[in-house]
Each structure stands twice: as C-alpha cells, then as structure tokens.
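Weekly puzzle thread! Below is a chain. First person to post its structure in token form gets bragging rights.
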Amino acid sequence: MSERVRRVVPRFLAYLWVVVGTVATALALDWFLVPNQIAAGGVSGLATITYHWFGWPVGVVMLAINIPLFLASLRFLGREFGIKTVVGAVSLSFWTDLLATRVEPLTHDPLLAAIYGGILAGAGMGLSFRAGGSTGGTDMAARITAHFTAFSTGRALLLADGLVIVAAALAFSPELALYALLAVFLTGKAIDLVQEGQSYAKAAYIISSRAEEIGRAVLEELERGGTALHGTGLYTGEHREVLLVIVSRSEVAQLKGLVSRTDPRAFLVLHDVHEVLGEGFGPMTPAPGAPPPPGAGRIRRRRAV
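Winning reply:
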C-alpha cells in the first residue's frame, strides 16, 4: 500500500463515520423526536419547535442556524472546528429532510419516543464525535458564549439546552418538555457509551506495606502487569508504595483474595474502567477513521514493582 493511500484511507473512513453518525441522528429525529413534539435541546430542538409552529423543514432550519454559528466560530474561535463540522452539520440537515419524506414515525407514545429517540440520537452523535466530527449546533454557541462570558463551555451548553427545553414547554406543554429533558439525558449517556465503551474492567489501587509481595502475586497468579506508585500517608507521614493494577471483572474476586491473604491490613480501592488498551486487553487501535499513532502495536510488558 502506497504512502498516499495510507494517508487517504483513514481520512475517508473518518468522514464516512461522520456521515453514518448523522444518518442515525436524522433517523432519531424523523422516527421519534420531531413527530412527537419532543424538542430535546440544541438546534434540532429549535427546529422541531419551528416545524410544528410554522411548518418549516427541520433540516433547513438547522442549517440556517448553523451557518451563522459556524461563521462566528471561525471569527472568534479560529479554525478548530474544521471541515468535519461543516460536513456533519450539512449531512445532518440533508438526511433529516430527505428521510422525513421516506420514513414513518415508529411510535406516537412520547415516553417511548423520548427513550429511543434520545438513545439513537446519542449513538449517532457519538459515532460522529469518535471520528473527530461534530454536528455543530449548540456546541458552537456554547463555546462562543464561554469566550465572551465567565461561563464555562459545559455550563454554557447546559444553559443553551435548558433555554430550548423552556421554549418547548411554552410552545407545546410542560409534560412534553419533561420528555425532552429525559431525551437530553439519554442522549448524553449514549454519547458517553459510544465514545468510552461499556465498563468491562476494574482499576485497583492497593496500598500496603507488603506491596512487593502483592505485586509478585499479581504477576504470577493473575498474570497481570501493574505499576508501583509512591505515596505518603497524610496522617502518619510514612512512605508507601501504591500498586495500580487493571483486571477484568471476572478477576476481581481473585485479586481481593490474594490481597487479603498477603496483607489483611491492605487498603484496596476499585473503580470502573471504560476502556483499556494494551497487552491483555484491547488492541492499541485508533478511533474509527483516525490514522494510527507512531509506534502503535509495539506494546511492551510492564512489571508490577
């Protein structure tokens, strides 16, 4: 494979995933959200309101709002959004209006529409985000607001979506606004799930005066690597090693057993890990369509202590 092809193929795949994500988001709008008057925040929420009040096409309204937002972002924030944002915003508007004439709503129950519409929209947006794209909308508005005010981007985004939901309550009904709030929540969760993956591993922090023995047991019994960190007790001032070990869910009980057997007074902290890349877990692969980093695939085994 030539060097040029090697550079072009990942870029093509990235744009392809952006388009696939916008198709899924458009289906969420046409199948569930728009027919049931669920304005689930953002530019699509505003477009849903104008569609039911004035009959304006949802995709056209989204594009009309996104164009000035994108120009303002270029003016005040620079070129950080890039061409993938343009592709994502235009693609979402195109597919939303095209599919609206070819698909029928799958349900007229607002609760089902909020649940499935929110999840499908979040999955589609998550695919676009993983490929480095964006659908524009309130994300750009939030960054512009944060640029000129004391609001953080996250608070500005929450404010923008909140104003859209308030507008939905005034335009439709408070009950439909509550369904829209549910859809916004599920969309955020679905985006996180697509980008980060489902929790399938556990990170363990082990604080013990017998860290070396525990590390050796982890290597020999679990056949897992680990990292020794240096910690200091705030109360005693004593220096102790802190072991960081990543294990699968099925190995948690075995890890607890060997820690308890080696040092019953050890301090063990477990928390969820959404994605682990490296030997013994997932391969060190980039996001869909992204070029592999230099040296990817050359993973060396680490010793615990």
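Puzzle host: Confirmed. Bonus trivia for everyone else. The longest strand covers residues 239-248.
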